[in-house]
Design brief:
The chain is 31% helix and 20% strand. Strands 4-3-2-1-13-14 form a six-stranded mixed beta sheet. A six-stranded mixed beta sheet has the order 7-8-9-10-12-11, covered by helices on one side. Strands 15-16-17 form a three-stranded parallel beta sheet, covered by helices on one side. The chain is globular. The chain folds into three domains: 273 residues, Purple Acid Phosphatase, chain A, domain 2 (4-Layer Sandwich), CATH 3.60.21; 84 residues; 58 residues. It is an alpha/beta fold. About 4% of the residues have low confidence.
C-alpha cells in the first residue's frame, strides 16, 4: 500500500494580528496554499492536528475562509481529518465548537473518542454522532487499511490520556491486525517538553514511549516550531508567524509518503517538510548607548534601518520579496536623556518607510541610567545577586512563598511570572499572554 498525506497544524484562521486586516488574510492564504498543494499532489487525505482557528468564537468571514478551503478538498475527493486544539475547542457551556459544525457540514471528520466509566473507547468515527476515535481514509484493494486515530487537546491530562490510549490500543492490536490495519497515524495536539524551553507542562519524550510499536506516525500540533524526533514524532509548526518571538523558527507542513511494502526494519514513511510562503518578519535590536539626545537617535536609527533593509533585501525603492514585512525593533542600552523626549511613533515611521513594511513596532527596553542600586548585593547565603533576572526570580519566590498554594512549585511559578512580565514588556498580544498563563496554571495545578 502506497499513500500520500498532508500533515498541517496551528493554522490559526481568524487571527487579526496587530489589528491588521492584511494579517488576518495572511493566515487564510497560508492555509489555502497548503490545501491547493494537497490537491495538486493528489494526496489521499489531509490531517489537521489542532488549532485550525485562532479562537473559539469566530466571525463569519473566518468561517467562510475555512469552508472555502475544505470545500476545495471535498470537491477533489480528498478527506480532511481533524482534532480540536486548545484555541478552537469549545467551552463546556457552549456545547459545540466550530470544528464540530464543519464536521456536521460534511467538510471534515472530527475525531473525538468516547469515554465510558473512565476508560477511553477506541471506536470508529460515526457520521451520525460525529464522535469516534478513528477513521480509515485509505483501504487498498487487498484489504490493507491505513488508520487515523485522534486525541484532542487535554491540557495537563495529556500524558495520562496517552497512557490510557496506549493500553486500550494494545488490547485491540490482534483485532486490528485481523482487520488488515497496516499503518497507523495518531493526531495529538500537544508538544514535547524541552523543544521550546519556556513552554512547560508538556509530555516528556519518555511519556510517548508506551505508544512505540502501536502507531507508526504521531502527528503533533500546538508548538509553532517544526521538529522531528526518531522519524516518529512529527510537528510541522504553524503555517504563519503567530508571534514576533517565533519569527526565526522554521515552520510549514509535512508531505508524508507511506509505503507499507518495504522490507522489515525499513522506515514505512518519508516525511518531507515544506516551508510554505508567508509574510517576512524582521526582528532586531537597536543599541542606544552613547546617543546624547533624541535628534542623534533619529539620525542613527535612520542609517541603521537603511543598512538593515539592504541586508534583508528590502529597501524603500522596490517591493520587498515575499511582500511587505512586519518589522519588530527593540531599543536597548542606557539612555543619556529622559525617555519621555523620545517619540516612538517617529521611529516606527522611519522603520516602516525604510523597509516598506506592512507595520513596524518599536519596543523600548532601555534604562534611564547605568546605575543599579542592587548591583553587587549579596543574599543571606553570600551569593551574588547582581543578575537582575535571578534577583527578580528570588523576589517572586519570596512573594509566592507566603501562599501555601504556590509553595510546592514555587520556582516554576516564579519563572512563569518572569516570563509573563517579559512578554508584556515586549508588547505581546494579551491573548497570547493569557494563553501562556492558562497553560502554566494547568501544568502546575493539574
Amino acid at each position: 500500500m502506497q499513500v500520500t498525506f498532508i500533515h498541517t497544524a496551528d493554522n490559526h484562521l481568524g487571527y487579526e494580528q496587530y489589528g491588521l486586516k492584511e494579517r488576518f488574510n495572511d493566515f487564510a492564504r497560508a492555509f489555502l496554499g497548503i490545501i491547493d498543494d494537497a490537491i495538486a499532489r493528489h494526496a489521499n487525505f489531509v490531517v489537521i492536528a489542532g488549532d485550525l482557528f485562532n479562537k473559539r468564537a469566530i466571525d463569519a468571514l473566518t468561517l467562510i475562509q475555512a469552508e472555502e478551503a475544505l470545500q476545495r478538498l471535498k470537491a477533489a475527493g480528498i478527506p480532511a481529518i481533524a482534532i480540536e486544539g486548545n484555541h478552537d475547542r469549545s467551552y463546556y457551556r457552549d456545547g459545540i465548537s466550530w470544528l464540530q459544525f464543519l464536521s456536521w457540514q460534511g467538510l471534515l471528520q472530527l475525531l473525538d473518542p468516547v469515554w465510558q466509566n473512565g476508560r477511553l473507547g477506541i471506536t470508529p468515527w460515526s457520521g451520525e454522532t460525529m464522535k469516534g476515535a478513528y477513521v480509515d481514509p485509505v483501504v487498498a484493494p487487498n484489504g490493507a487499511r491505513l488508520r487515523v486515530y485522534g486525541l484532542p487537546w487535554y491540557g495537563a491530562s495529556t500524558a495520562r490520556v496517552m497512557e490510557n490510549f496506549a493500553a486500550a490500543l494494545a488490547e485491540r492490536r490482534a483485532e486490528e491486525d485481523t482487520e488488515g490495519v497496516a499503518y497507523r497515524v495518531l493526531l495529538l495536539h500537544t508538544g514535547v517538553e524541552g523543544i521550546v524551553p519556556q513552554m512547560h507542562g508538556l509530555p516528556t519524550r519518555a511519556q510517548f514511549e508506551p505508544l512505540r510499536g502501536l502507531v507508526d506516525y504521531i502527528a503533533l500540533g500546538h508548538v509553532h516550531k517544526s521538529y522531528v524526533i526518531d522519524n516518529w514524532l512529527f510537528n510541522p509548526g504553524s503555517t504563519e508567524t503567530w508571534g514576533a518571538e517565533e519569527s526565526a523558527w522554521e515552520r510549514g507542513y509535512f508531505v508524508t509518503r507511506v509505503n507499507t511494502d518495504v522490507a522489515e526494519g525499513e522506515p514505512k514513511q518519508v516525511a518531507e517538510h515544506i516551508i510554505n510562503p508567508r509574510r517576512p518578519f524582521v526582528r532586531m535590536n537597536f543599541q542606544m548607548d552613547g546617543l546624547p539626545d533624541p535628534t542623534a537617535v533619529y539620525e542613527h536609527f535612520e542609517r541603521f534601518c537603511a543598512m538593515e533593509a539592504r541586508k534583508h533585501g528590502m529597501s524603500s525603492d522596490r517591493e520587498p520579496p515575499g511582500g511587505a514585512p512586519v518589522v519588530d525593533i527593540t531599543l536597548t542600552g542606557v539612555l543619556s536623556f529622559a525617555g519621555e523626549a523620545l517619540e516612538a511613533s517617529r521611529l516606527e515611521e522611519i522603520a516602516k518607510s525604510r523597509f516598506r513594511a506592512l507595520t513596524a513596532r518599536v519596543r523600548n527596553s532601555t534604562r534611564d541610567t547605568d546605575y543599579d542600586p542592587l548591583e553587587g548585593e549579596d543574599d543571606a547565603d553570600g551569593q551574588d545577586r547582581s543578575s537582575r533576572g535571578e534577583l527578580e526570580l528570588h523576589i517572586f519566590e519570596e512573594l509566592l512563598g507566603r501562599d501555601a498554594r504556590y509553595q510546592e512549585h514555587m520556582r516554576r511559578w516564579a519563572q512563569t511570572l518572569a516570563e509573563v512580565k517579559t512578554l508584556a514588556l515586549d508588547g505581546e498580544e494579551p491573548a497570547a499572554i493569557a494563553q501562556r498563563l492558562r497553560e502554566a496554571r494547568a501544568a502546575l495545578l493539574g
